[in-house]
Amino acid sequence: MTLELDKEQHIEAAPPRVPRKDDPVMRLLPRPLMVAIVAVLMLVVLVPLLYIFMASINSDVSVARGDFWPSEITFANYASIWTTVDLGTGLFNSVVVAGGVAVVCAFVAVSMAYVLVRYSFFGRLTILRALLALQSIPGTLILLPVFVIFSSLSTIVGVQIIGTRGALFVTYLTFALPFSTWVMVTYLRGLPRELEEAARIDGASSWLILTRIIIPLSWPGIVVSGIFAFLLGWNDVLFASVMTNPETRTVAVALQVFGATAEGGAVPIYGQMMAASLVCAVPVVVLYLVFQRYLVGGLTAGGVK
Amino acid sequence: MLAPGGILMVLVIVIPVALALYISLVDLDQYTLRQWISAPFIGLQNYVEAATASPMFHAVGISVSFALIVEVITLPVGVAAALAAQNRFRGRAFVRSVFLIPYVLPAFVVGTVWRTMLQPNGVVNNLLDVVGIDGGLWLNGPQSYWALIAVQAWSSWPFFYLLVLSGLQSVDNEVHEAAAIDGAGWWTKLRYVIFPYLRGPVALALIISFLHNINSFTLPFVLFGVPAPTDVEVLPVLTYIASFQSFRFGLSAAMAVFSLVLIAIPLAIYLRAVKLDTGDEGPKR
Fold it and tell me: What would the mean pLDDT of B25-52 be, rounded to a whole number?
């Protein structure tokens, strides 16, 4: 939480300060109540997750009937999702765009954050405030003007812009920057000044300090802000649905195509839809669970998503 | 070093906001889009039309009530989850990871999956049948509103859980010990000792999640498709439809600008509450 936690806890969710294992003094809830809450919530979370998997190895008719357990187990859905809709291209586009955004965003963010944390200048607080405010600007407000700008630009230069990965890249980069910079600001605040001061006395330039001291010291923060930038691109539907064509569409849009593929008449290809959903979700969930300790702090720092 | 990112943000956020303001004042549709600079200036007519002749206020009502109801549901769930996951027990790491999953699943996946589950003959209605409830239609008609709330609640309660969990870390061991020495029961301890510590985190979480719920586009868009049933036509979806289905760009921009007004108050509170600097300003606990 931005207001009250120590700086370290923004990035690194500190382990609970429980001195002994299961100390009754620290106990918050009576054991039965605790067990009940955990059990109920685990069910609420895991049953739908289990269903996704069950439906993904089920036949469409059986899913349409509303069966929870597959009537026949088939892994064919996992083979067909690559041909029915070309999910592979979607994955490729998402990885390229979101991955590119992640890398560029993280390094732009660290340099911006460095300036914002270490230098004092007129308008600094305004910029910090703007970083937070920009995150709440509704995407629907920006989408239309960005669309208009890109389409006029392409009339002027004579090159198609809407529908390219480049246009998506620029858009996501900008949307990711405020949050990533904010994450880096909270991270850099926790770094001691002494190292930089020593380097400065030795005559190092700001650029040298940034590249040789700040960036090597802030890898955890850079990874966090990069991952958040990646997820922003991966999860977006609003911009991708308007600014991509079948060749450049991201997974988020490709997944929607599964829904449209058999609408009307025949049974929708539910099995493939669920298999593709899992394919879209697994990289994200794995990313979160692997970097859980670092990411949770970032989540609570600004409430992304 | 501030320059590259700063220029980008001006280019792709500040200029578009200004342009959105401009578009909201002109009569722009698919015929005039190419020459948008020379589109006829019509003053506030788009706003007048949005307010009187479009379902905008209906959408605002749905957005706001949806955002608030989701908070009312997810707050207690998140608090309960955090309290339950705070103390050590075997398998806690696993439980904590699982609790994160609904929140980290991409909204477009959550929407796709629940859309399948909530089909008229889908698995949800089948399970409801087992306990003797007739589920009815979830993706159309009045019940779709509650379907949207339920799915958003399912995927967003871990946000409160996370913030409350990190709030619980700020309770010192001595506080627990003092409560134990005074012989406080668990509820008394929670009510008078622990909850006061959570007031700050919970207040912040309420504001942030309100902002997110009200800007939420992907979930309603994917869950119900477009055109959305009127019961779930939240403001972002309505704005999107006005632009990219009915091609009333000016009208859509007016709605989008209005949505800024909606988020202005919670955003202002948020900005005041957040500690911006390393200095001493900013609220104390």
Answer: 77
